[in-house]
Amino acid sequence: MALPSRLVYDCLVIGAGIQGSFTAYHLAKNGKRTLLLEQFPLPHSRGSSHGQTRIIRRAYEEEFYTNMMVESYQLWAELEKEAGITLYRKTGLLFFAPSDNEEYESVCKNMEHHKFPWENLTQEQLKAKYPGFVLNPGEAVCLDYDGGVLSADKALRAVQEQFQRMGGLIQDGERVKHIQPGQVVTVTTTADSYQAENIVITAGPWAQKVLSPLSLELPLRTLRINVCYWKEKIPGRSGLLQNFPTFLRVVPDGEIYGLPCREYPGLIKICYHGGNEADPDERELQTKPPQIPDVQILCDFVSKYFPGLHPKPAVMEQCMYTSTPDHNFILDYHPLHKNIVIGSGFSGHGFKLSPLVGKILSELSMGKKPSYDLTPFSIARFKKASL
Ligand SMILES: Cc1cc2nc3c(=O)[nH]c(=O)nc-3n(C[C@H](O)[C@H](O)[C@H](O)COP(=O)(O)OP(=O)(O)OC[C@H]3O[C@@H](n4cnc5c(N)ncnc54)[C@H](O)[C@@H]3O)c2cc1C
Questions:
Q1: Contact (CB, 8 A) for 122 and 133
Q2: Which residues have a Cβ under 8 Å from the Cβ of 291 and sit 6 or more positions away?
Q3: Any residues with CB less than 8 A from the CB of 326 and at least 6 apart, and which?
Q4: What is the homologous superfamily of the domain 8-49+153-219+326-381 according to CATH?
Q5: Which of 244, 296, 343, 355 has the least C-beta neighbours within 10 A?
Q6: Is 81 an active-site residue?
Q7: Per-residue pLDDT reduced to its tens digit, 299-348
Q8: Burial of 190 per CB tally in 10 Å (0-12, 13-18, 19+)
Q9: Is 324 an annotated catalytic residue?
Q10: Domain 90-148+221-323 carries which CATH code?
């Protein structure tokens, strides 16, 4: 049902990526008259939420994320039920790291503490379950049985459709140009102007551009991610296409992750968890010399660990991360305006938690006590955040 454009909305959400869409969905579930604004015609591939797949896992170094994943899995199942579709495919997630790695120890401790289904694997067990993978001397690997793949594009569409079914309104192709704070906030876009008692800013890599005119500087870095897909040298020979779980591997240059073949028949997705700084409006232009030779790191990795694959990517796409210095999210109020809520800094790992992020941002916006301790996500943790 379309809402008239001149009313004062209970809440206006800026940015229809996965975080803004889930926030709008939870607000509508709570009976709030909600408008979701998006700068590009939907769907689009300029932000962080597009593409077919994302990893979901319980295995987290930080206890607070491990804990939050319990409800996140439940909320994904709820959306699947409401929308009548399957979004989660269980494949298991292998987490490899040097055996003395602190992150690895914390992951195992957290999995054990929560009694999640998991186990450490020996070289023989790994080979028996996943013949395409090898364990190096001095490395350990554990299996998070509930790890798997989320269908990202489908999920985004499903959550937006559910929001609209509950009476929410999406206006796409309208960029927010100006926000006038106040008891009632006025938001001016390239097409219209709207009023709302509360707003939520979930603008992904554009967050800082939206926040600077509101006198808030956050230590956010926007990174261009090269999403690489790899082809078998001899079709059908590597055995990887039949039995490929999701994986994360700590390597000397950072972290590399992989997902089974979904996007393109015969190709496996293996990516570097990081990238080089880029403006989201000019991501195709390489304005600065790259600091991280991400694609070369991947080529070396693939030729070492997956000799059955061509060591050059067959397809390369782009996506954006918005990273904080500690890689934890920002879920907080604007320090000067209690009716402006900010969800940002998802640092390349926010998709799996988005149903819960949306719930938390909606709680903040409705003035409810948030369901989780938000200290790790506060703006106050940054010395550099300035007004
Ligand atoms: C390659 C890649 C792989 C990833 N893999 C995983 C994974 O395996 N598991 C996982 O959990 N996470 C993963 N992530 C992270 C996850 O996808 C992101 O954390 C998440 O999509 C962030 O969503 P968002 O809504 O904050 O941002 P976006 O999706 O970028 O949404 C922000 C929206 O705001 C809109 N907007 C901005 N400014 C304005 C304005 N002025 N007016 C109107 N609209 C505006 C933008 O157009 C955009 O649509 C990955 C990310 C990438 C890029």
A1: no
A2: 276, 277
A3: 381
A4: FAD/NAD(P)-binding domain (3.50.50.60)
A5: 296
A6: no
A7: 999 999 999 999 999 999 999 999 999 999 999 999 999 999 999 999 99
A8: exposed
A9: no
A10: 3.30.9.10
Strand partners, 343: 331
| Residue pLDDT, tens place only, 266-284 | 999 999 999 999 999 998 8
The per-residue pLDDT of the chain, averaged, comes to: 95
Ligand 1 centroid to Cα of residue 48, in Å, is 3
CB atoms within 10 A of CB 46: 17
Pairing of strands 185-189, 118-121: unpaired
Residues of the chain within CATH 3.50.50.60 domain(s) are 8-49+153-219+326-381
* Structural contact between residues 40 and 172, judged by C-beta atoms closer than 8 angstroms: yes
Q: Which of 189, 185, 202, 215 is nearest to 11 (CA)?
A: 185
Non-local CB neighbours of 78 within 8 Å, separated by 6+ positions = 355
Q: Which pTM was predicted?
A: 0.97
Determine whether the shortest distance from the Cβ of 349 to ligand 1 is under 6 A: yes
Of the residues 50, 249, 334, 337, which is catalytic? 50
Does 29 qualify as catalytic in the annotation?
no
Domain span(s) for CATH 3.30.9.10 in the chain: 90-148+221-323
